[in-house]
């Protein structure tokens, strides 16, 4: 790899998959991640992969890495998707597995942490840890006589600016992939890219796979509508083959309508016992079939989370910068409804990586072509995610009055 690198802000799944694409294309890159390692903090919940998401990932990874990824994925059939009254145990809905199938009639999922580890393989030497990107500066293109836009000659570039005031090496292009708090996205879009706080909250948890034996194989939603201030529910994916092994953990995601789940002092960075204790108190009246998921949870892994969403009307337009663009949650944050966000993020990585490979690296027009195509599928995805969340979470975003995430 030679020449100015593509700079990537953030080390999440979209950034790492883009890095895999660049690595295989021989395009130099550097990743700047604010955490100190891949396992610095909890990696969140298990992701259900759509056919489009799987296709995007397979199009990027080389054959051995794809096989490793595919082998790590869980393939679930069983009852398909089933919804239950969490208190009475009564089944309220069932969707056949083929309706949700990713491939081969199976629902395919993988833990976020496993996905990041596989995507990072071969890219480790290009990751700089504990580097929090807070902005960027364009470097004047001498052949165009100034302006700093980087749109014409080869001598222009871009530098990432870090929280300590230092700057990165000069890159040919910067990709903001650092999630909903992306400073790159705010600077690039002039504030047009917004993330709204829906008011809904959740808790992630894990328990030994043996705690899920009462459910059997499938994807499950357990919903409790007994509270006067709103509903809570849990989504979990129980895959075959591990339910008799207490050393294997499955995850679940609890969500609550606005006002139902409140972290102590509204501090949603709390992890561990306090989050676990709240989950247990909220589910103390649940049916015995479902209680083991909560009662046997690994308290250390419990974590709160806020449920956010981008502008429901779609990904906005901003003046294109040939040297800067954004991917994943930085471009289109989504609610967890339907698991659409991660699948859209990997599509971003595959698309941008493909355009850069075809161009042989940075070229004027790459970011414009990427953003034009991304806005179409990502806007549709945001709308679907938000519409589903309105029904599931009882959220409502008014773009004129709703609170945005700082």
From TrEMBL:
Pfam families xref list: FAD_binding_3
Gene Ontology molecular function: FAD binding; monooxygenase activity
UniProt biased composition (Gly residues): 144-156
InterPro entries assigned: FAD-bd (IPR002938), FAD/NAD-bd_sf (IPR036188)
Span list, region Disordered: 141-162
Entry-linked Gene3D superfamilies: FAD/NAD(P)-binding domain
Domain of life: Eukaryota
Keyword entries, A-Z: FAD, Flavoprotein, Monooxygenase, Oxidoreductase
Keyword Flavoprotein: yes
Domain FAD-binding, chain residue ranges per copy: 286-384
Cofactor: FAD
Lineage of producing organism: Eukaryota, Fungi, Dikarya, Ascomycota, Pezizomycotina
Protein name as catalogued: FAD-binding domain-containing protein
Keyword Flavoprotein: yes
């Amino acid at each position: 790899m030679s020449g100015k690198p593509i700079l990537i802000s953030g080390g999440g799944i979209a950034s790492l998959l883009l890095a895999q694409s660049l690595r295989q294309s021989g395009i130099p890159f550097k990743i700047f991640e604010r955490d100190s390692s891949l396992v610095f903090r909890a990696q969140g919940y298990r992701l259900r992969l759509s056919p489009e998401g799987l296709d995007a990932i397979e199009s990027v990874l080389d054959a051995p890495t794809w096989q490793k990824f595919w082998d790590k994925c869980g393939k679930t059939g069983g009852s398909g998707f089933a919804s239950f009254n969490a208190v009475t145990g009564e089944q309220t809905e069932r969707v056949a597995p083929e309706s949700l199938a990713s491939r081969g009639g199976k629902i395919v999922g993988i833990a976020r942490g496993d996905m990041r580890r596989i995507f990072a393989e071969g890219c480790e030497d290009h990751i700089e840890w504990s580097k929090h990107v807070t902005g960027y500066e364009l470097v004047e293109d001498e052949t165009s006589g100034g302006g700093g836009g980087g749109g014409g000659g080869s001598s222009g570039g871009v530098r990432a600016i870090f929280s300590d005031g230092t700057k990165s090496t000069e890159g040919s292009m910067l990709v903001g992939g650092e999630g909903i708090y992306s400073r790159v996205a705010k600077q690039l879009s002039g504030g047009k890219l917004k993330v709204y706080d829906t008011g809904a909250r959740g808790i992630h948890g894990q328990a030994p796979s043996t705690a899920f034996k009462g459910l059997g194989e499938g994807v499950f939603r357990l919903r409790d509508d007994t509270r006067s201030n709103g509903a809570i529910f849990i989504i979990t994916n129980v895959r075959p083959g591990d339910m008799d092994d207490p050393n294997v953990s499955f995850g679940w995601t609890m969500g609550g309508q606005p006002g139902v789940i409140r972290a102590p002092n509204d501090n949603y960075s709390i992890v561990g016992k306090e989050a676990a204790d709240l989950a247990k108190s909220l589910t103390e009246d649940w049916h015995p079939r479902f209680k083991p998921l909560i009662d046997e949870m690994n308290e250390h892994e419990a974590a709160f989370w806020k449920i956010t969403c981008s502008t429901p009307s779609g990904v906005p337009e901003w003046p294109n910068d040939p040297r800067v663009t954004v991917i994943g949650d930085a471009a289109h944050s989504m609610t967890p409804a339907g698991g659409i966000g991660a699948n859209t993020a990997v599509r971003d990585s595959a698309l941008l990586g493909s355009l850069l490979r075809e161009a042989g690296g940075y070229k004027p027009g790459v970011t414009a072509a990427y953003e034009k195509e991304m806005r179409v599928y990502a806007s549709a995805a945001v709308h679907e995610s938000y519409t589903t969340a309105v029904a599931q979470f009882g959220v409502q975003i008014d773009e004129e009055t709703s609170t945005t995430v700082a």
